[in-house]
Write a structure and sequence with these properties.
By secondary structure, this protein is mainly beta. The chain has 1 helix and 2 strands; from the N terminus they run ββα. It has a two-stranded antiparallel sheet. It is elongated and about 50 Å long. The protein starts with 5 loop residues before the first strand and ends in a 7-residue tail after the last helix.
Length: 71
């Protein structure tokens, strides 16, 4: 293809204290979601971003469109 493939990987982590009966809403338009239940009042969210692109510029374009909000 004339390009060297570029790989990028990083993660975003966030922790929240929650009470019983709380609600977790997750939306994604790309990728997969994995949920692991644990006891306690702490919720930990980890977003693993992996990009396989043809150039560093393409990686930057993809990550620029990536949004993550924690409320």
């Amino acid at each position: 293809n004339g390009y060297d493939d570029q790989d990028f990987e990083d993660s975003i982590r966030k922790s929240f204290r929650v009470g019983s009966g709380g609600t977790l809403n997750i939306e994604t338009d790309l990728g997969s979601i994995e949920i692991q239940a644990r006891s306690g009042n702490q919720v930990e969210v980890e977003i693993l971003r992996k990009v396989d692109a043809r150039s560093k510029g393409e990686i930057e374009d993809i990550l620029e469109d990536f949004e993550s909000d924690f409320d």
